[in-house]
Amino acid sequence: MKTNRLVVLGMALLAFASAAHAQGIAWADLSEAQQRLLAPHEARWTELDPRSQQQIARGADRWLEMNRRDRGAAQDRFAIWSGMTDEQRTNARQRYEEFRRLSPTERARLIDVYRRYRMMPLERRIQLRDRFRELTPEQRETLRQRRMQRPPGR
């Protein structure tokens, strides 16, 4: 009998949590800072699906926590994203998911390689990019594997 009550209580809590999640975020429940930031979208807020409301609210929180430099960088990234085709966005999402699946060590190594690449003179980066584009898929994979076996910083 007690087990049945616990099961019913658990199901009721799950149903309540699902209903609350499905309702999204009411405009009035946003902070004043979020409302100021998102004011141009207030009239359409209720038309957004709950998941979008939650993503936008989290994005507004992140924006409000950024300093001026970080906001500028975010605007630059958004401009690049806005200029992408649907296919380019799909490819970017796939690469991001692949990156997330890497181990923390592999991610750190990849970030280090990219940082060092960005510090190279433009001419050298162009040379490397051109050489990489001339490689076959098999040669590219071999290069990636060798690169991932090197210690960071080399």
Main beta sheet: strand number and arrangement? none
- The sequence of SSEs as H and E is HHHHHHHH
* Number of E strands: 0
Number of helices: 8
What is the arithmetic mean of pLDDT?
A: 84
Euclidean distance between termini CA atoms: 65 Å
Low-confidence stretches: 6-21
User: Over the alpha carbons, how many angstroms does the gyration radius reach?
Assistant: 23 Å
Strand content is under 5%
Q: From the helix content, strand content and strand pairing, which structural class follows?
A: mainly alpha
Shape label: elongated
> Which range best describes the helical content: under 10%, 10-25%, 25-40%, 40-55%, 55-70% or over 70%?
over 70%
Attribute tags:
single chain, 154 residues, mainly alpha, 8 helices, 0% strand, elongated
Care to describe what's here?
There is one protein chain. The longest helix is centred in the N-terminal third of the chain and has 22 residues, at 2-23. This protein has helices at 2-23, 32-38, 50-65, 68-82, 86-101, 104-119, 122-134, 137-149. It is mostly helical. It has 8 helices and no strands. It starts with a helix and ends in a 5-residue tail after the last helix. Helix content is 77%, strand content 0%. It has a domain at 104-154. The chain is elongated, with a radius of gyration of 23 Å.
Structure at a glance:
The protein is mostly helical and 154 residues long.
How are the SSEs ordered, and which strands pair?
Layout: H1 2-23, H2 32-38, H3 50-65, H4 68-82, H5 86-101, H6 104-119, H7 122-134, H8 137-149
